[in-house]
What does this fold into?
Amino acid sequence: MANPPILTAEQRKQALERATYSRRLRAEVKGRVKRGEISVRQVLAMADSEPAIAKMRVSELLESRVGVGKIRSLVLMDKLHISHSRRIQGLGSHQRSALLNELGGAIARGTLLVLSGPGGVGKSTVATQLRSRANFWVSVSAATRQPRSNEVDGVDYFFISENEFDRRVKDGEFLEWAQFAGARYGTPREGVEKALAAGKNVLLEIEIAGARQVRAHSAEAILVFLSPPNWEELVSRLEGRGSDTPERRAQRLDLARNEMSAASKFDHIIVNDEVNRVVVALVGLASNRSL
Ligand code: 5GP
It folds into this structure.
């Protein structure tokens, strides 16, 4: 019988480090699939250039998808004649596309739409319109500022204290958060994930730094920049906000100027010349997205 290869201490150490790295990477990727940050399609693409992912079992990948348990994953593989122990690298091209088709049909995840743009451009009016659409879920953010006179806790924002905001940041409860004009705003992670897994399209109405954070974690999100028809219109909207002090208004104008320069980093720019047109464009973007 052949002797097993004898490795030097250094070779053993390297092999161990490689194995640890591969395990960690696979766990990280599965976690991201589970949280809806990346799709099965993206993992299959990753496997083409990353051996650690190529060696992941197909069953493990499927089970990390919300809505696909152990049994469902086995049934799916039987149906597509994929052996239960098959690794991603062993999938043929027909099997790959059949798998993606099946997943697309079985549990179509919702689309994550991020609507951003300068303060005063009319994001919240658009969000209110989308809220009444059956297949849309609009996230309600947490905020540390005081409610305006027309705002309702739990509807416009969850108004929370600085301490509570700190706690939620520490416990990872926000999908993203940012400081804006002296207050902090954050998107509660749980509701977004549940809605996407249930097949709803999700709208986040947030400022630019937050949109960037979403992009960093989710290649699937669609980032939309809502632009005013022109600068003068934006100024008049911001100046018309009776609830702001003059200092606050000046601060918001400065911020808006900065925010306008970020438009080119977004996937789409939509001019807010008419709310209905914006709503139709957003619904179109969400429904064109496949798995
Ligand atoms: P306002 O105080 O006028 O309601 O909101 C100020 C800014 O904060 C707006 O640009 C709004 O889109 C943004 N915003 C609201 N909620 C969130 C959030 O959860 N995260 C981030 N990053 N920005 C938010």
User: Anything to note?
Assistant: Strands lie at 112-116, 136-138, 142-143, 158-159, 174-180, 183-188, 201-205, 222-227, 268-271. Residues 119, 123, 141, 145, 176-178, 180, 185-187, 205-207, 210 surround guanosine-5'-monophosphate (CB under 6 Å).
